[in-house]
Design goal:
- The chain folds into two domains: 3-229, Spore Coat Polysaccharide Biosynthesis Protein SpsA, Chain A, CATH 3.90.550.10; 235-443, 3 Solenoid (UDP N-Acetylglucosamine Acyltransferase, domain 1), CATH 2.160.10.10.
- It contains nine helices and 39 strands.
- It is elongated and about 105 Å long.
- Helix content is 18%, strand content 31%.
- By secondary structure, the protein is of the alpha/beta class.
- The structure holds uridine-diphosphate-N-acetylglucosamine and calcium ion.
Amino acid sequence: MSVKEMSEKQLQVIILAAGKGTRMYSSKPKVIHELAGKALVQHVVDSAQALNAASISLVYGHGGQQVKDTLNDDSLIWCEQIEQLGTGHAVQQATGSIQDTANVLILYGDVPLLTQETLEKLLEAKGEEALALLTANLDNPTGYGRIVRNKSNIIEKIVEEKDASDAIKEITEVNSGVMVVDGDKLKQWLSKIGNNNAQGEYYLTDLIELAVQEGETVKSYIVADNKEIEGINNKIQLADLEREYQKRQAMILMTKGVTLRDPNRFDVRGTIEVGQDVSIDINVIIEGQCKIGNNVKIGANSILKDAIIGDNVEILENCILEKSIINSGCLIGPFARLRPETQLGENAKVGNFVEIKKSTIAKGSKVNHLSYIGDTQMGENVNIGAGTITCNYDGAYKHITKIGNNAFIGSNTALVAPIEIGSGATIGAGSTLNKNAEAEKLTFSRAPQKMVDGWKRPTKIK
Ligand code: UD1
Ligand code: CA
């Protein structure tokens, strides 16, 4: 039974993100610290959006403007909590837009790994009841609110660690904080909670006792993977969940047939689409949105950002590719840097210590060693000699270099743009050209070679 079939209720989400995150020791609010290249709270917003939430309210406090600038999302309802008086008080700040008939899901901006599947299970567990909690069984429950159940295993209340007796501290089932509540009941119960507890806070968890008092049955779903409910309070936990997230990405890719030389040394900070027989060596970082074809090899220490890679491409070690399109059969690297708007045609080759920017290199062309190619439109089967530079910048403006099919550019040539090299042209090594070179002709500019008679190397007098 899908969530939709089960209930016609619309889903409204409230994300608590007002905490400062003192233990991060940072000028940034905790929830905008990044996991896998994305703000913690963005992970939570994305999960809420994946559930097709009718509305998402964000309770913010510390560094509100920074959180707003980071999320930059007009569809969110922003609710300021000026003073942090507890999780119950935080939810109260967001009730203005909550419908009586809605299912209200409460999430936390610093709990980034909760999956859509788990949240759907929680909604399913709630069914037509008024309230359901996401809980977990922990080996070490210290610090968490404990779930107290009666003899029939029905939830009675939650007791916070700071308010717990020794007997209650023995309980290993804990409150994740995540819950789903009927909109009308949420508003009713929130108006009844007080702050008469060890921390003098308005506890959201007091809702449970109120529900039980009114004869409601509190439902629960026990999370299958405890990492999902972990929150982040410091940089150690941030690093721990980062690795956990990356391990999951690696598992998904290996399940699809990707060969990862070491899943512990592989990072995805964005999304990746892969074909068959893709092999990725250690320390590869995937950023933005990357698409990789069939039979592709990516060498160690390479970084791909928003790259589209065709079939049968080999990227050797230590390459950086950004916003580039690589057609099938290309060979790149080692140590190549492809900057934004680079496009390589089929079977093109870009070798070591080559930088390419905003250029099209048509099929079969080779730039094999130590070159800078910028703002260039290169034809097919061109051979660029080692050390060739396109001088695209005159100090104020960028200019275009055009190189025709089958041209051969000798080593250590400087092409001062704007310039056009005709098809089949040959340029002599060491030339500096600032005028067009004609097709099929040999062009060079080079000081004539001299021989000096009677010259001797200086020697040191001892
Ligand atoms: C809360 C739960 C506890 C649960 C634990 C799980 C309560 C009373 N306790 O405890 O049962 O086991 O989470 O981690 O709910 N926040 C605000 N405004 C506030 C207070 C908190 O936005 O006024 C936000 C915080 O930024 C944080 C989250 O709510 O992201 C949880 O608050 P925190 O004070 O850490 O609750 P815990 O004591 O951990
Ligand atoms: Ca906490």
